[in-house]
Amino acid sequence: MSIYFLGINGIIGSGAFLLPQTIYKDMNLMSVFVTICAALTVSMVALCYADLSSRFTGSGAAWLYSYHAFGRFTGYELGIYTCFLGCCTYAAEIVALLTILKTLSPVFSNHVVYYGIAIGIIVLFTIINLFGRTIVKLVDNLSSATKMITILIFIIIGAFFIHKMNFTPVIPKAATLGVGPYFKHFGAAFSVVFYMFTGFSFIPIAAKQMNNPEKNIPKVLISVMITVTILYALMMLVAIGILGSKMVNYSTPIAVAFQKAVGDWGYVLVIAGMLISVIGVAFAGSFNTPSLIASLANEHAMLSKWIGKKNKHDAAWVAILLSAIITMILITQSYLFLVSCIVLASFIQYVPSILAVIKFKHTNEFPNNGFKLPFGYVIPALALIISCYMVTNFTWKIILVGVVVGVLAAVAYFFIEKDEKVEEKHQKYLSKMRNK
């Protein structure tokens, strides 16, 4: 259940409460259909991760899979990009939190207050993480449960205040002018919803700190995707049913919808749930990212050993401090810029991971243990096409950021000494798995 809640926290964040307005603007009532379509397509990528996580017990997710499939350098590059993704997610949720607070009081627009709170949150999360997995698990479970209860209250009570007349128009007039305009609007909404699901890739990152990960992670990945899809679709349906076309006028549509339904207490409840949701995803990022950095250093010596050092609570304290410093730098950027960086980094880790599934199916290396992807190569092929679609949404600025991160990582790679013992251990492991 703790892995399940970690997955919920990793996916449901600021986007669930702030982005329905943007999605509705492009597709009106069809937003619900777009949400389900995006969920199905992202789930194909998630199924590839489920297949891979059933083959390995180590921490790291995308970088670990690419390392075993395509070699040390590819795994290293994916590791750096996944670290970048984790820090961007961590920073984006903190920026989203402060953006929400700005709507409540102008005092949060003051730079001293803004950055003081942001840095204070990062410091608090850092201290909690330094005391190891027990406290992390407790905080994560509480925030995830609170978040789900808030969403369920909105859906169940809000359903009684739906007006059928608000379900028109079904689709924007601009999207009915032809195939081209329709797919333009559909694609814009689809990209936003796609972002709302990207957090699933963090679930296998701390695999070594979980019990029986090769069997539990695939189950959790599938159950989390089903849960989140149902919640997103129902949230969108209820919000549209209450607000109708007025939904485009509000930056916090879910909170305003509940306010219209039950009064001011509804607004306060959803805003509180929204803040907890955002904090939960930020907290998940503060836990997952250091775990990833530590796994790069400890499991395969892709980073200097001192980066993976742990304290008496089994917490990777150097990696925790390092991720906190990087996040403090990133919070100076805008929410939309960080979201674009998240989508880019997600694309970069999805493609090699999907290709790894195809390779392992072909070579029969690293047998599955607990879950096996059905239908042969069909799901990986579809997942690859869907992932490549994301390229059409990148600006040259974001692509440049991705190139710079990759080049700097490649340069640093040649200054990292290889640990011969680790390499020898890895080759023995490969030999053992091939013999199976």
Description:
- With 436 residues, the chain is an all-alpha fold.
- It is built from 17 helices and no strands.
- It has helices at residues 2-11, 14-18, 20-27, 31-53, 62-70, 72-104, 111-130, 133-158, 179-197, 213-243, 253-262, 264-298, 317-330, 335-363, 378-389, 396-413, 420-435.
- It is globular, with a radius of gyration of 21 Å.
- The mean pLDDT is 83.
Counting DSSP H or I runs of 4 or more residues, the number of helices is 17
Percent in strands:
under 5%
Mean pLDDT: 83
Taking the sheet with the most strands, its summary is: none
Model regions low in confidence, pLDDT < 50 over at least 5 residues:
none
User: Measured on Cα atoms, how large is the radius of gyration?
Assistant: 21 Å
Helix content: over 70%
Summary keywords:
mainly alpha, 436 residues
Could you give the topology of this structure?
Blueprint lengths: L1 H10 L2 H5 L1 H8 L3 H23 L8 H9 L1 H33 L6 H20 L2 H26 L20 H19 L15 H31 L9 H10 L1 H35 L18 H14 L4 H29 L14 H12 L6 H18 L6 H16 L1
Question: Care to give the gist of this entry?
Answer:
The chain is mainly α and 436 residues long. The chain is 73% helix and 0% strand.
